[in-house]
User: Fold histidine kinase from Flavobacterium azizsancarii.
Amino acid sequence: MKWIPNFNSSNSLRVIFVIAVFILLFLSSIAYKHNKDLDESSKVVMHTYEINIQLERLMSAIKDAETGQRGYIITRNARFLTPYIYSRDKVNTSFITLKKLTTDNPKQQKNLEKLFKLIIQRFVSFENCLKYSDPKTYDKRKLDNHMFGGRILMENIRFQVDEMNDIEKNYLAKRLKIYAAEISLSPLFSISLFLVALLFILLAYRQISRDFERLKIYNKKLLISSGLMAESESIGKFSTWQWDLDSDKIDYSDNQYRLLGYEPNAFVPVKETFLEFVHPDDKEKVAKSMENIVEKKQLPFVYYKITRPDYEIRYFKSTGKLLTDQQGSKILLGINFDITDEHLLNIELQERNRELEKSNKELASFNHVASHDLQEPLRKIQTFVSRISEADKAVLSESAKAYISKIEVSAKRMRVLIDDLLLFSRTNTTKKEFIKLSLNELLENAESELAEIIEEKKAVITVSKLPKLAVIPYQIEQLFINLIGNSLKYSQPDTVPEIKIESEKVNSADYPDLLEPNVKKFHKITFTDNGMGFDPQFKETIFVLFQRLHSKTDYPGTGIGLAICKKIVDNHKGHIIADSTPNKGSVFTVFLPE
Assistant:
C-alpha cells in the first residue's frame, strides 16, 4: 500500500501550532518553576520513544532476514538473501544503542540479554534452514523442524520485546503521574501547564516536521522499491498474487498479467478466469490444488501449462502459503514462475543424455570388437607369419622378405595400438571406485612394472614422500607408469636418465586460471627428467589423442599414453600440465585435490 501525504492537513496543523505559540507565550511568564519538571518528563518521553524505535528496528531487521530467507528458499534467488546478510549488522547496531539507553535500568539490561540470546538462536535457526533447504544437503524433516522452531523463537522474541516496551511504558506512566501530582499542587501549576503544553507542542511540531520530511523520503524510496520489484519480476519471469479467501478477492502483480499474455489490469482476476488459461491437460490438477489450499494451509509446487491468447503454450510452476492476519482473515500468498526456458532446456538435456547413452553403448560395442573381433584376425596374421621358417624365407626374394618383415612390424604395432585404445577406453567406462592409499605404494608398483627398462637404461629415480589420497588405484598406477615410461623413452643418448618426483601442498588461489576455486587445497606432484625435451609450443597438444611429436620409426608408440594421463587426472578432478626445454629435459606437473 502506498502512503500519500496530505499536504492541506499538514499546513492546517502548522497554522494551529503558530496560534498556540502566541497564546502560550502570553502565559509563559508565570510558569518558570515547572520548566525543569517538564524537561525531565520530556527526556523520559524521548528515552522511551528511542527505546521503542530501536526495538522496532530490531524486530524489523529480524523480519527482513526471515522474509529474505523464505524468498530464497522458495526461489533459490540469491537476491533475496541481501536483507538476511545485512540484518546482523542492523541487529548489532540496535543492540548497542539499546544497551546504552538501558544502562541505568538493571531489569531492562537483563531483558536485553535474554532478547539477544533469543535473536542469536533465531539466526542459528536461519542458517540451519538455509543449510537443509540447499539441494546438496536437503533434509525435509530437519528443515520443517527448524522452520517450526524459528516460528516459536519469533514468538518468544516478540514477547520479550513487548515486555520491554511494557516496562518502559509503565516507567513513563509513573513519571507522568508524579509530574501530574506535582503540577496539581497549586493554581500556578495549572497556568504553567500551558507552558508545558507549549514546549511539548513545539517539540511535537519540530518532530512532526522532521517526520513529515522523513516520510516523504521513505515514500519516495517505497515507490522506487516497488518499481524495482516490478522490474525484478519482469527480468526473473515470475509474478506474485494474493488471494483473500474470505472475500474471494484475488490481486495480481503487473507481471502476472504479462505472463498470461495481457497488459496489466486487462481483466478482473478471479479463480475461474485463471483456470481458463490453464491447458486442458492440467485443468483438473490445478483446480484440485486450489480446492485443497484451505485444508493444507499451503500450496505445494504445482507444475502445469498455460495457453496464452496467441495460442502459445508456456510452462508454469506455482507455490504459495496460507496466512492469517490479526483480524482472522485468511490470505493465500503465491508466486508463479515461467519455467518454459528451463523446461525446454531439460528436454534438450534429456535428448543429449539419450545420445550419450547411445554413444556409451557404441563405445562398449567398440571395446568388444577391439578385444575380440579385431584381435582374432591379428593373432592369426602373427601366427601364420611366425610359421614361415627360415628355410622358407631362404627361397624368397629379397622384396618378399622385406614385405614379410613389414607385415610383422605392422602387426605388432597394430596390437600395441589396440591395447592402448582399450586402456584409454577403460579410463572412461570402468567403475571408478576411490580408495584412500599412499601414492608411494602405487609408485612402487609402477616402478616394478617398468623394472626391466629402468635396469636396462640404468635410470636413477628420486622420490620424495607422496601424500595419502582417495584415488582410483589402478588409474593412478597407470598414470605413474606412463609418465615415468615417457621420460625413459625420450631420454638422451649416452646420458643416464634421471627422474625426480616431488610433492607439495598448494592453494588453488595460487593458480586461479588453472585450478577449481571451490577446492581450496591441492597436492602438486612434479615429474622432472633430463631427457631430450620438446618444443614448448606443443605443451598442450601432447595430451591430445594420437598426437605425436616424433615419427613412429624414431620412437615407438601410438600417441595415446599422455592422453590417458590427462583422462586419469580429469577423472580425479585434477589438472596436468607440461613444460620443457629442448635437450634440457621436461617437467610434468599433476595437481590432485586434497
User: Anything to note?
Assistant: The longest strand covers residues 313-324.
